[in-house]
Inverse folding.
């Protein structure tokens, strides 16, 4: 999948972004700092990324005339979410460079294919087994054991499309509750911490990883990220190395995030890869205010064929998501010393919806 | 000129900005972080601020139907430059809140009126004398002495509209070279450093000043700003106090910058006010990457009726302007560790034109 190095786009060029959520919005804001324009393409009229760009297309992902015009208006195209339909990505890739390569989407849209890919790189994951639509779940349980987590192979995020199966639960019922679609059963990992590495890879093949981030979830949604993670230097290097290996194996151009489990495994400690997000990631939001170059800017630089930055972290950083009605607390955060507030312009604070985040930088490294 | 406290605008509100340059652009980017929208109004089709907003008006400042529509589209109106025509500001102020109050514009648009205002606050300035269009320059020279600086009362910036008059120069010739318009003659101040204070005042009357910045000019254009300035704590407090006094005397709402001279005056040290910019200011650009809340965000918060932030500086900060063809060096800056690069999307790098800036944060405070 490796691409040849690409010529850098000049300032003033236009980057097309598929998807109009907060990630697209923050990508567009990062591009603007660099004198690059973004054109947002999204099917939802209330897409919050529309508000921060001059040019936008409101159309469905299968609207070929709209995609055609979008491709003509852009110099390069990227995306803010991994579930871009393959047909959309391929249609655009025949017209303009799409980065990262749409083949990466295909691979990461299927949890089983993704896990097989990671395993083929000799990178550790939780034990896993395929569950086909025929429902060979008993076989998978026999192989993996319980407790385990059953996940749909496609279209899961923020805890959607997954079910924990305990020793007393009925695996067949869990499978049916997920719609009897193809799944993957993953052994439950008694992890000590959830961590992630956000890394950028340029079209020249340079990889720059941010410091390992430690993540705290509530109800399967990221709540707090802290950088650096409270893990040993050896583990941190191992985690960053895994992310770099994955980015390079993909021939990836842009930012990706690798979610991992840090295990306390008896006397030893290990890192397992949980999943890959082929895009900027919530656990990298701290880089906007906590580092000299953000994950959003690194992504923009990479897809524009520009050199990556070499970010320096400003201190110990903590990012807290404002989820649903929590956003109504923003006036309190506004006056908190040393705190940076981000509101995504999303309108109604529905439960579970990511409405904004706050970042605090503390003096020590 | 004091305003009553105003209700805070809800997220999603629209702030109108008169002026489409890099200051308007960075204001709009700061507003976007807070979930607020901006509508840019500017008469130049290639205004770089147009690129980062959804809504913009391309029209002259005396186009009343366009101003009328603009006022209807905005919840509050502000400006990015001090030479907004008074008629424009007043036309808009009859329709929507304009912040800061247009009376401040009238005052700071005239160097003589501004100096008289400062002097009335018992704040020290360089000695000055009015030169009317009749050309009573000899009188002014007799009062102030030479060397001195002759400045037009109106429309000067970046060294435009001013002439140094040395002991061997002909003052009358200098006056004619500036077009024989009303001027102010200012005594030359043998300053040790040029410094500035960027301060925000909220509609509730709270004033928050950034750390004093030390500025280095080349050819009358700001080249480098460093924060904190290398002055004593006592001088820094004096400088901040002067800015706060000025902001409060104006009943100001928004960010202003006060340019000052730090003098080494024999054994003593003194601060003199040079001029006031009733807007965000180039010497405050370091706050984007060097502090938890930027000058642009403080201005947006103030005009939206939001509480001000309490910014914490991330370290010692240095901001360098990229002027004219210097911007062509941006690829070198992109890979400099710990460096944040800003390009304003201005197209042709004409000599003297501010094209971008870079900020570096160093570890120590």
């Amino acid at each position: 999948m490796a691409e040849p190095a690409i010529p850098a786009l000049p300032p003033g060029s236009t980057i097309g972004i598929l998807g109009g959520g907060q990630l697209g919005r923050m990508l567009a804001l990062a591009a603007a700092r660099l004198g690059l324009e973004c054109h947002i393409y999204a099917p939802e009229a209330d897409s919050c990324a529309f508000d921060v760009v001059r040019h936008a297309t409101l159309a469905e992902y299968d609207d070929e005339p709209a995609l055609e015009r979008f491709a003509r208006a852009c110099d390069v195209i990227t995306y803010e979410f991994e579930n871009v339909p393959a047909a959309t990505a391929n249609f655009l890739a025949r017209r303009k460079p799409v980065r990262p390569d749409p083949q990466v989407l295909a691979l990461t849209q299927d949890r089983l294919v993704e896990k097989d890919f990671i395993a083929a790189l000799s990178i550790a994951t939780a034990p896993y087994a395929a569950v086909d639509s025929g429902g060979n779940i008993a076989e998978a349980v026999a192989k993996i054991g319980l407790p385990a987590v059953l996940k749909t192979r496609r279209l899961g995020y923020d805890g959607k499309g997954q079910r924990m199966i305990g020793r007393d639960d009925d695996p067949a019922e869990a499978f049916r509750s997920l719609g009897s679609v193809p799944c993957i059963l993953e052994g439950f990992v008694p992890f000590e911490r959830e961590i992630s590495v956000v890394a950028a890879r340029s079209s020249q093949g340079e990889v720059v990883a941010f410091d390992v981030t430690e993540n705290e979830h509530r109800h399967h949604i990221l709540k707090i990220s802290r950088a650096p993670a409270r893990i040993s230097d050896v583990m941190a290097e191992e985690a960053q190395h895994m992310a770099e290996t994955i980015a390079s194996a993909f021939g990836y151009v842009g930012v990706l995030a690798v979610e991992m489990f840090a295990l306390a495994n008896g006397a030893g400690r290990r890192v397992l890869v949980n999943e890959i997000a082929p895009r900027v990631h919530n656990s990298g939001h701290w880089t906007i205010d906590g580092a000299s170059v953000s994950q959003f800017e690194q992504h923009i630089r990479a897809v524009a064929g520009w050199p990556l930055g070499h970010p320096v972290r400003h201190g110990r950083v903590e990012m807290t998501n404002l989820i649903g009605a929590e956003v109504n607390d923003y006036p309190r955060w506004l006056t908190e010393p040393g705190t940076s507030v981000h509101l995504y312009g999303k309108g109604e604070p529905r439960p579970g919806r990511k409405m904004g985040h706050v970042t605090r930088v503390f003096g020590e490294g």
In short: The first strand of chain B starts at residue 14 and ends at 18.
